Amino acid sequence: QLTGWPEGLEEKPRVLTEVAHFEAIVEEQDKSKAEDKTHAIRVPLDIVHVPRTVQTACDPGLARLEQRLGIDLCSDPDPIWDWGHTGLHLFPSAMQMAGFLLTDSGRKLLHGKHVLELGCGVGLLGLVAMLAGAKCVVLTDFDPLVLDLCRHNQKLNASVLGSSRGQACSGPSHIEVRSLDWRHVRRQGKPNLVQCDDEGSSQPTMSHVPRDAAREAEALAMLRDADVILATDVVYDEGLSQALMRVLLEATEVNPSAVVLLGV
């Protein structure tokens, strides 16, 4: 299906994509009436994603996009690519988390807050977080293909998001998509390596990420600024799970008041 993504790669082989249609329902206070009443605003969201039936590690269309973005899975020894581009899929827990964020409890939690999503994937939760009243949303992932699709979905829904947020929320807002490899988060004075298992299988260890002071400082700043941290469907690999644990421990140390919401 032609969905406008990837941009500039219309010729075959194309990337197989689908569009998931959502209707976000946001309750708004009715200021025109004296009594305390609300009415629902229905916001249509379109999310482009790659079906989970597609093997993203060996898809010809994605291989062309990899080449354009400077990725070569065959020559890159980093085992983080063993799973392919899983973030291009739309997973159930993201949809369930989206439903919670639009409840009264979710909106109270996000209203006026800085939200950071780890492993943002296709970017659904960023749009929902803005509708729920977040002041600033930072969507992060390590995969350039995933970040490209996430930016596409933010652009695709920018118009409806802007008009709908203007009705349901007040004050300025900001949303951005940024690269973040959890392995750039290093805990001072704490072990940072993720070890191989007894059979010697490779896990995404710190040895595959050269020390980069600028990236490490940038990652720490993102964690420090976050009031609410979101992550859904990101614990499918032992090595990455340990990296996620390190990130969350560091996040709650640099900002003890931060709230973490996980969907697995």
What does this structure look like?
- The chain is an alpha/beta fold and 264 residues long.
- It is built from eight helices and seven strands, in the order ββαααβαβααβαβαβ.
- Strands 5-4-3-6-7 form a five-stranded parallel β-sheet, sandwiched between helices.
Please summarize what this structure is.
The chain is an alpha/beta fold. It has 8 helices and 7 strands. It has helices at 60-68, 92-101, 104-110, 124-131, 144-156, 158-168, 213-225, 238-254; strands at 18-29, 38-49, 114-118, 136-141, 174-179, 228-232, 259-263.
Side by side, the strands of the main sheet go: 5-4-3-6-7
Fraction of residues in helix: 25-40%
Class inferred from helices and paired strands: alpha/beta
Which residues sit in consecutive blocks of at least 5 with pLDDT less than 50?
193-198
Alpha carbon gap, first and last residue: 29 Å
- Element-level helix/strand string: EEHHHEHEHHEHEHE
Helix count, per DSSP?
Answer: 8
Radius of gyration over alpha carbons?
Answer: 19 Å
Dominant shape: globular
Report the β-strand fraction as a percent range: 15-25%
* Counted beta strands: 7
Largest sheet: 5 strands, parallel
Mean pLDDT: 86
Q: Mind sketching the topology for me?
A:
Elements lengths: L17 E12 L8 E12 L10 H9 L23 H10 L2 H7 L3 E5 L5 H8 L4 E6 L2 H13 L1 H11 L5 E6 L33 H13 L2 E5 L5 H17 L4 E5 L1
Parallel strand pairs: 3-4, 3-6, 4-5, 6-7
Antiparallel strand pairs: 1-2
Helix pairs in contact: 2-4
